[in-house]
Amino acid sequence: MDWNSDILKNLAWNATISNRESKQKVAEQIAAKVKDGDIIGVGSGSTSYLAILAIGEKIKAEKLNVLAIPTSVEIALTCSNLGIPTTSLYEYKPDWYFDGADEVDPNKHLIKGRGGAMFKEKLIMTASERNYIIVDNSKLVDVIGSKFPVPVEVFPSALMVAEAGLKKLGATEIVLRPATGKDGPIISENGNLILDVKFEHIDKDMEYKIKCITGVIESGLFQNQPAEILVA
Ligand code: 5RP
């Protein structure tokens, strides 16, 4: 039996979406890839949001059976609102995955995690057969880390251990990400803290080195996850 719930009916993306037109174009490119029976990993952020809206329309118009594996509560609720059934890695391996990014360099290395969802994003991307990163061209950079810090999700009581480890790796600035609209730090969906870390230089092994710090759950540096980059 379906829920007879009103809560999700008014769910909408209230934040302004930058470069909306470009993001919409690349969202439609992603929707065009959807086939009946697909199990799709769904990233988070505004570009992924526009893509899942476009996918929702295609599913309705063509009466497709699709399952989504969401990377955040926010995107899970959007799927629910659109009538797209969700599942998890316990049940299925995704056929393909799509997601946005904050930075993409010429080696296809990424910085992700402005929305703090990078742990599940990397997990579902790693499990997936094929990956698409969808960006507008403001996300393309020559040098990774030139615009954004690297988000690092840290187990709360490991905060100082992680800070010391990140300094050893050459961190020049470490900020404990604040919660929006209230005092104190943001708490991730996994119950952890997020550090935003600037480095003097990010070498090709930095993702691995950050991951080796005890207490680090995951970082938003993606250097080892093959993906096709679709640029609007
Ligand atoms: C969330 C992410 C997003 O994909 C990234 O921040 C890009 O967001 P947007 O599509 O809103 O520009 O990694 O954790």
TrEMBL record:
Enzyme type, top EC level: isomerase
Enzyme Commission identifier(s): 5.3.1.6
Keyword Isomerase: yes
GO cellular component: cytosol
Pfam families: Rib_5-P_isom_A
Alphabetically ordered keywords of this record: Isomerase
InterPro entries: NagB/RpiA_transferase-like (IPR037171), Ribose5P_isomerase_type_A (IPR004788)
BP term (GO), one: D-ribose metabolic process
Listed NCBIfam families: PRK00702.1, rpiA
Name of protein: Ribose 5-phosphate isomerase A
